Amino acid sequence: MPRTVIAHILIAIGSLQIAFAAPAFAEPSFSSDDQSASVPLPRLADSASHSASASDARLETPSGQTPPPAQWRWRKAGAAEYLGVTAAAAGTLYLENKNGESDKPHWSSRNDFDEGIRDALRLGSSSGRDAANTGSDVLMGIMIAAPVVDSFATLGMRDGRWDAVWQTEMINLESFTFTSLASSLLQNLVARERPLARDCGREACGGDEINRSMPSGHVAFAFTGAGLLCTHHAYHSLYADPGAERALCATGLAAATAEGFLRVMSDRHYATDVLAGTGIGLFSGFLLPRLLHYYWPQQPAQQSERDRQAFFKEMAVTPQIYGDGGGLSFTATY
Predict the structure, then answer these.
(1) Distance from CA of residue 33 to its chain's centroid?
(2) Could you tell me the pTM of the whole model?
(3) Over the stretch 278-310, which tens digit does the pLDDT of each residue have?
């Protein structure tokens, strides 16, 4: 994968976090007897059973009034996550720009498994392989954008749950930066020669980073995006329709699988490179969000208690302009 691609991914998703920072902290707090605070906390095993009732912002109370948006009910991103994302992004950029492709491959031997699949799937024409490579670039971009846009459109634009948007986008950022770091580190350490290297000279293949075949970064990113889609929909039920949630998850996994086929068809990777990228992506998209957040439920009442312990409840700074000068007015409620 071109080195500038990862940098653009990190900058784009990171910028999205900054854009949501202000409304994220405007989420109202609710008391422990709020109807939205008593919603059961879904886990992976029983998420489907809660899917029809998990979108609190779209349900109506017996009196016909729409309840306030539900709070985030899992462990929130904290200083450790912010520092971890920053470190992972910095590490990736270092690996991509300072310690990139090895001049000589560490692994150029071949095996029957990879050779058999390559012979079956590799496109015969150079133009066909180039088209497959371009298609895989586009599909990877779509799979990276999918969970980011999906969370913003449903939790944010539709439901107005900006705190939940911030948290889900932070989860996306954590997963994608982990995928970036793991892929770059392994590509440099393994330094496997790409399959296309045998059919072209060093100069002609230079743009394809011919000694960075294992693992496939494209596939790792695609499965990370698919896993995030499945994970967010399992816990939030963003469509309030179990069939639609499952269909979206299946579509994402199918698209990520297609990404793997395109990488072999374009002769950019071996099948084992694709399998390695799949493993990284599934861990980043499915397991990492659960380990860091969704496996740690938190009652909204606990969050409200912390809010009540804050010294200042409301605070405002207002500029004052007089005929011969000016100043600032500070108002606080505690």
Answers:
(1) 34
(2) 0.73
(3) 999 999 999 999 999 999 998 765 444 444 444
